[in-house]
Structure formats: C-alpha cells, structure tokens
Specification:
With 721 residues, this protein is α+β, with helices and mostly antiparallel strands. It contains 24 helices and 25 strands. The relative contact order is 0.09.
Length: 721
C-alpha cells in the first residue's frame, strides 16, 4: 500500500558553509530515507532549507562589514548548490526569509496568543549602555554556570550543551563593545510549555518502543525536570516582527519560528506544484520523520509537538525523530572559531568527479553517529574507498563487464535456455520470499553455487530493507556491501575463466547471472551511491526499473548490449591522504584548553587516593605500538568478541577484542589503534589473540576504542620527563 512519507532535515543556519558534520547529522540520513521510500513506491516529500534570522547572522554581517541580507543570500545559495551537487534529493530547499514563512509564523503566533498559550513577563536582560541596546544571547559571552567554560554564549554552552538564562552567566562581556553589560528590565512573550507536560509525557511514552535511546533519554530528562514557560521573543531587528501593536524592536526568537519553516516550505512547494500542503501536515495517514542532530532533539520531540498540538487544527506530530550524535573530524570537534572542519563546498571543489561524491557519501554513512559520537578521518576515507568500494563493489562489476567484453563481444551470452534460466531465477526468489522449498524443476537450471548466491542476495536485501525502515542506515549499507561480497564469492567459486576454455555454455550461464547481479547492485546501492548507480545502469542498453521491491527479479533482456563503464572507484594513494591531513592542520587554529593549576599538596593527596599505583619501571615494561585494522569479523558463538587482523607495518597479527556490542566489523576497517604489543598470547573461543587494543570506558558505560593519527607500527611509550 502506498504510504505518505514526510521527511524534514534540520534547517541549516545561514551564517557559514555546510560542513561534513552537518551532512552526517541530518542531511545524508534524510536523503537515504527519502531515496529508499521513493524506490519503494511511496509518496515522499523531502523538505529542508536555510534558517536565516537571529543574532548570529547580524554578528556575521558586522564581522564581514556587510548586511544580514547579504550574508544569508551568500550562504543560502552556496550551501544549496553544494548540497544539490552532493546528491541531496530535496523536493524543496527553502528559506525562512521567504515572505510565506513570515506570514505562517505570525499566524501561528496570533493563534497561540488568542488561545491563551502565551504569557507576557518583564524580565532582566543584559543591556550594553555604551551601545544603547539590549544584548541578544549571541552578543554576550561569559563563563558557563554549569561547566565553567569561559566562552559560553548567552543561551547555551557549546561545550556542555546546558541551557540557561543569559543573566546566569558569570563574568559576562558584551561582544559589541567589550564592556560588562548590566541587567535591565524588558518585556518578553513566553510560550506555556508547562501546560503540555502531561500531553508530551503520553506522546513520548507512546513512542518509547520505536525511537532511539539517545533521543528518549534526552527528552525524558527534560520531562523529568518539568517543563516551564520559555521566552519566544527577543529585542532584535533581524527577525520576524511580532504581529501585535506597540512591539517595535521585538522579534520572534529564532529557535521558536524556525521550526515552522518546515510547514512554510511545504506551503511554498504546494503553490509551485499546484498541490495541497495540508495533505502532508494535516493527514493522519502521513508518517513524519524529523532528521536532526542531537543539539536539536528537545526542539523536535517536545517544543515543536507542543506548538503543533496548541494550534488545535489537526496537525500531525513526528512519527520518529531519528537524531544522530555528533561526527568529529580527526578526533576533534568541528569548530568554526578554530577553523577546524571540512566544508562540503571545499570538498566538491577539490574533488569535482562524481565518484568522489559517492565515496564521501559512503564513508560518512559508514561513520554515522547513530548511537554515539563518531569520527571522520582521511585515513578511514581512503580505507573505505580502497578496501570496500573499489576492492569489493567496483571489483565485481569491473571483472564481470570486462569478461563480457572479452569473451562475449559485449553482449548478453547467447544461451538456448535463456528464458528458462530467467524464469527459474524469479521462481527461486519467489520461493525464498514465501519460505517454500525449491522444486526439482527450479533446480534444474542452477547448481549449488548459483543457488547459494541467490539465497545470499535475498537474505541481505531483506535485512537491508528492515534496517532502512528502522533508520539504521549503517546496518543497511553493511547488508548492501555483503551483497557485493556474495557476488565476488560467486564469481570466484564459479571460475568462468576456467570453464570458458572447456564449456562456453557453462561460462555463459555464470556471466549471465553475474550481469543480472550487476543490475541488482546498480539498483540497491542507489540510495547511498546515486551517481555510481547511474553509471552502472548505463552499462546496459535496456531500461532499469529502480523499484526496490522488485530489485531481485531477473530483468536482463536477451538482446541487451553491455557497455563497460570502466573503473568505478579509483584507489586513493597514501601521498594524497598525507597532503589532505597537512592542509587540514595548516588552516586550523588550535585553541589551548585552560586548566586550573594544581598545587603540589593537592597532587600528592590525589595520588594517594589512586589504587594500584605503578612505578615508572613498571610502565617501561609495557610496549605500546600503533596498528591498522585491515580486516574484522565476528567470532562464531560469541556476542562480545570480534576477530581483528591488524598490521604493524611489515608484521601482521590477530587480536580478539570484546567490542562487538559497540562496533560493527565494517566500521573498524582502516582505523589506526593502539595495541599492547608485548602481551603474552591468549586463547579465546578456540582462537589465538596476540595482543590487546586500548579502549576507554565512559561514565555512562559505553566503550570507545583509542584511535590515533599516526602510521601503523609506531612505538608510543617513549619516556617523557
């Protein structure tokens, strides 16, 4: 049955360029979901855009000596172009400076006002006397009242994520004049979130079996603290003005009006397409998925649902909010102030070829921070391209098409039983779908090697479908790559390079099957590799139906011409990776971390509390070396262990690590880890472990392996005094 799937990805704040962290947090997951459901035949509306109001925009304008309008025009257009070039399949990428958004936000404000969901309060806000203005949150900086970070902004600390009133800041400073602001009374409007506490508790409880644990934990934490009124206005010129009399200089708080941008963008899309926006936002049958980063969770799980409910006009609430954690870069957080990041625009300029767009999409997806923070590294990018995209997917397709060129004149092999093979193929798939035992009439055209690959393709496709539906995209893509692995195994096991010398019909049947598998891979990889899949599909003169549900059906026509698309993924050399790392370091500004000095007495007291203290001589016995993970696989009958093959340079070893519940084998490949090199070998689950990797336990009980940006084989524990 056709489903209505409404997808939103967080509006990108238009005061800077879109970077890879934004892609991993909200954009690429939403695009995968949208492409998957379109291929399923569902009705999809994929909405996003630019968030263009607020103090940060005016600050950027002042810094660049221009106007806020010029700033948002620049970044909206640049980011939109980069995202579309990268393959984001938005139905609309709108902006909150669009008049239709202003009208929508003001109508909603008046609706809340008339229904009694707004209150008016006088409160203290920092005032800069020398600039004669109240300071919006972004214009004041001080020490965080929660974690003591000394560059916390006026509403939220970037380091610990705490929310607070700006007057709670310690040692506040105006970013306009550099002076110390003073509290001064002003008037603001508040939304009565406290009135929706019970409603939201029931709503979240209803979603508890479907939503991700990180989303539920943060949301429940807010509910447990009790919701309160929250200011939704600010003294600011660059914002949507209040639709009330005598409110000059008052604008809607950007976080309040920005979420309505999803609705106003849908209205804009509907006007352009002569359609109805209400079929999406007021249709009980619509499934609404809001893709965001973890810093936006409560706005989409609590505040936006409360406001939609307050409108009392049939608006739907999110079906799921599959928020991601943060993706870091080479072990450090993306930082605009420290110039530590990779802008999407910058990447596309440096790597204009379409294959690199897909390579980046794949690498980011395999490092999605779905349950915990992840890390993008250039070394991992290289490993994903070389060891997976090139060595597995690209290798199978290239060897199949090249063999067809050489041995069958770039045409589908001519076989007398072509039609019965096609019919048998589809019967096998149907039997697997219905869990029916294969009949002898089906088996007559296939040997055990043929049937094994069909069964493997079916199982991995089935699992990938389930994972896509559950927004478990890393797991889904692992299943897709497993389909390519099964295809390579089939080619190796069938050995067409041998059978072509003894029985061309047998070799022809193998290549016929391989060509159909190439077509299948060109369909199922489309959500993550849209540019590559277009090349794969163009390798066949017949048309390809990109229907996910029928992807495993035999569709290859007898008279199809095969066009070799060439190498799909070029292997990346070490020299390029080293240059990219160097460029990243050269442009960054490392901010020193300020620490309070510890007195000698305090150090002595702390050391006395540590149990199991060792001497420097004890430590010298431990030899730590860096090693790169070259392969990883699960250990049979063990839920905790992974079997790793690691390289120290010239030497390779096997290590067993109890990290299977935290990491998939695929996401470990290419990582450079720290290993206790001189540990005595041990036997676990009948396997030898020759070393031990280092990992860290967090306060929450999660385990993270220690990775390092060094070449494998380096000795770490040199003495430092």
């Amino acid at each position: 049955m056709n489903r209505n799937i409404l997808i939103t990805s967080a509006l990108l704040y238009a005061n800077g360029y879109c970077h890879l962290g934004h892609i991993a947090g909200a954009f690429l997951p939403a695009d995968l979901f949208a492409r998957f459901h379109r291929m399923k035949g569902n009705s999809v509306l994929f909405v996003s855009g630019s968030d263009e109001y607020g103090a940060a925009i005016t600050m950027a304008a002042e810094k660049q000596q221009t106007t806020p309008n010029e700033i948002v025009n620049l970044y909206h257009n640049e980011n939109k172009d980069a995202l579309l070039t990268f393959g984001m399949s938005f139905d609309i990428y709108d902006r909150t400076t669009n008049p239709i958004h202003t009208k929508t936000a003001q109508e909603f404000f008046l609706s809340f006002y008339s229904k009694g969901f707004l209150s008016v309060k006088e409160e203290e806000q920092f005032y800069d006397a020398s600039a004669s203005m109240f300071l919006p949150d972004r214009y004041v900086e001080g020490i965080c009242p929660n974690c003591a970070y000394d560059k916390a902004r006026g509403d939220q600390c970037e380091r610990c994520g705490a929310y607070y009133n700006q007057t709670d800041l310690k040692e506040p400073k105006s970013l306009i004049s550099g002076t110390t602001p003073v509290p001064k009374t002003t008037k603001h409007w508040y939304f009565r979130y406290d009135l929706f506490q019970k409603f939201l508790e029931e709503y979240i409880q209803d979603k508890s079996s479907q939503w991700k644990e990180n989303v539920l934990q943060q949301t429940r934490s807010w509910l447990q603290s009790g919701l309160s009124e929250r200011a939704i206005t600010r003294d600011l010129d660059w914002g949507i003005p209040l639709p009330l009399n005598d409110t000059d200089g008052k604008a809607m708080y950007v976080w309040f009006e920005a979420v309505f941008g999803y609705i106003s963008a849908t209205k804009q899309w509907a006007e352009t397409h002569n359609s109805s926006w209400e079929q999406w936002w007021k249709n009980p049958a619509t499934e609404y998925y809001a893709f965001i980063g973890k810093d936006n969770i409560v706005f989409h799980t609590l505040m936006f649902p409360a406001m939609l409910s307050a409108l009392q006009d049939g608006y739907i609430l999110p079906t799921n909010v599959p928020a991601n954690e943060f993706m870091n870069l080479e072990g450090r957080k993306f930082s605009k102030s420290a110039n530590w990041g990779i802008d999407l625009r910058e990447f596309l300029q440096q790597f204009p070829q379409e294959e690199y767009r897909d390579s980046l999409r794949y690498t980011i997806a395999m490092n999605f921070p779905e349950t915990r923070d992840s890390d993008f590294t250039w070394t991992n990018f290289q490993a994903r391209v070389n060891n997976e995209l090139s060595a597995i997917l690209g290798n199978f397709i290239n060897r199949t098409l090249t063999f067809t060129d050489k041995s069958f004149d770039s045409a589908v092999p001519t076989l007398e039983n072509f039609e019965t093979i096609a019919t048998s193929w589809n019967s096998v798939i149907q039997s697997l779908q219905n869990n029916i035992e294969l009949t002898d009439s089906i088996r007559v055209n296939f040997d055990e090697v043929d049937l094994a690959v069909l069964s493997s393709l079916f199982e991995h496709h089935k699992k990938a479908t389930e994972y896509f539906e559950q927004c478990k995209f890393r797991d889904a893509i692992v299943e897709l790559m497993s389909m390519a692995r099964a295809a390579n195994k089939y080619f190796n096991d069938a050995e067409p390079w041998k059978t072509i010398k003894t029985d061309k019909n047998i070799a022809g049947k193998t290549i016929l099957n391989c060509l159909q598998i190439v077509k299948i891979l060109g369909i199922v990889f489309e959500p993550i590799l849209p540019f590559t899949c277009k090349r794969i599909q163009n390798s066949f003169s017949d048309n390809t139906d990109n229907n996910w549900n029928n992807a495993l059906q035999f569709t290859l026509a007898k008279d199809t011409t095969i066009i070799n698309s060439g190498i799909l993924f070029t292997k990346i050399e070490d020299a390029l990776i080293e240059e990219l790392k160097k460029q990243l370091e050269q442009k960054s500004i490392i901010e020193p971390v300020k620490q309070q000095p510890i007195s000698v007495d305090k150090k002595q007291k702390e050391s006395q509390k540590i149990e199991g203290v060792i001497t420097i001589d004890d430590f010298k016995k431990v030899q730590l070396r860096t090693a790169q993970i070259i392969s990883a696989e699960a250990v049979p009958k063990s839920k905790k262990l992974l079997k790793l093959q690691v390289s120290f340079g010239e030497e390779q070893r096997q290590i067993l690590a109890g990290i299977a519940q935290m990491y998939t084998p695929e996401e470990l490949i290419g990582k450079v880890i720290v290993v206790v090199y001189n540990l005595a070998p041990a036997t676990l689950m009948s396997e030898t472990s020759n070393g031990m990797l280092l990992a860290a336990n967090s306060a929450e009980g999660t385990l993270s392996i220690v990775t390092i940006d060094m070449k494998n084989g380096a000795l770490l524990n040199a003495e430092v005094r």
